[in-house]
Amino acid sequence: MLCNRAIKVNAWTQWGKLKTVVVGRADSACFQPEEPAFKGKINNKIIEKELDWPLGRKKQRVIDRANNQLDNLAIVLTRLGVNVLRPSPIDFNREIKTPLWQVNNMFCCVCPRDVMITIGNSIIEATMSKRGRFFEYLPYRDIMYKLWDADHYMKWKAAPKPSMNSNMYWEGYWSKFNSFNIKSEDEQHKLLHDYKYVLNESEIAFDAADITRCGKDIFVQHSMTTNLRAIEWLRRELDGLIRVHTLKFPYDREPSHIDCTLVPLRPPRSEQRGVILTNPERPLLDKDKKFFKDNGWELVDVPMPSKINYPMPTFCQSSKWLSMNLLSIDENTVIVEENEKDLHVLLEKLGFETIKIPFRNVFEFGGSIHCSTWDIEREDSSEDFFRTPYAL
């Protein structure tokens, strides 16, 4: 529910003081159905030999464990003075059928970050890149209409829905890396640097979680879940308001969602450099490193994930780098998964207060703390943190 005070739809950064946020739910969650954009991987060699990728609803005890941790996150945020909203789940265990394709079931609404993004006073509904997530915007419609009624300056944008027909995907993608580990180093390098992912460029398709905000600039990852045509759509749609930059991470074999690769935490000020957490296994291109450093940002590699959290849960489809998937409450305070102790130490050395919560039971549903939230209102503005231009 909306709080009594007026909500102002406003979020220009990842770090402005958080005022209103949506926290996901695991109710009625299902396994993602296999389709051209998704092939499930079971993270247990014994189980993998015995089972095909499951269909339908997840076990209720698994859903309940995730909901307990999501509810706890909502409680922690409320105690910090943040207004917390929750989605209205639908029955995800239903077949989706269009004139062009069908899948056995949908997925869940644990990760609103994937579907919705606030940029300034606009909220954008992403197209999504997977068929099973085509209607994942529906659990947020009640919230959207309440915001629309409450804030007369809010803008509501929905990206053009793609057909998701077979021609939208590169048929050969999943066989591309089958023999990756036995290829020569030069062959591996070429594969990684051709930036050819499962989405082709025939239609606009993106997940909102491939976007990160830094005031007057947003950075969008070209990935398995966001194509270049979508980045061009964002560039045109936000022209005159926001500068849109494309980032590529060639050493990520299956890039998806930027918040496990590049996490801005604090902007550069006259007395301090800005802080961006970076992934040591997924380095920025040299020209992008230079762009950030020239504009006063310090790039800080995160430590390796906790051995308690890795290997990932059996049916989790996210990488071990959920370790860096944290949520900023303000420029000095972050919420982090409780087992990532090396990351806690690093953040505290950098001057951040860390609030530690359990969240491993949510990993199976597609993300961690940042993924499971969608910030609607922050105390910030369209400040320019990149006065030195990007060199093409």
Structure in words:
The protein is 20% helix and 19% strand. With 392 residues, the protein is α/β, with parallel strands linked by helices. It has a three-stranded mixed beta sheet. Strands 5-6-7 form a three-stranded mixed beta sheet, with no helix packed on it. A three-stranded mixed beta sheet has the order 8-9-10, covered by helices on one side. It starts with 16 loop residues before the first strand and ends in a 13-residue tail after the last strand. The model has no long low-confidence stretch (mean pLDDT 94).
Key words describing this protein structure:
single chain, 392 residues, alpha/beta, three-stranded mixed beta sheet, 8 helices
Secondary-structure map:
Layout: E1 17-23, H1 45-50, H2 60-79, E2 83-85, E3 96-97, E4 102-103, E5 116-119, E6 122-125, H3 141-150, E7 155-158, H4 173-176, H5 185-193, E8 211-214, E9 217-221, H6 228-237, E10 243-247, E11 262-266, E12 274-278, H7 286-294, E13 297-301, E14 327-330, E15 333-337, H8 341-349, E16 353-357, E17 373-379
Parallel strand pairs: 1-2, 6-7, 9-10, 12-13, 15-16
Antiparallel strand pairs: 1-17, 3-4, 5-6, 8-9, 11-12, 14-15
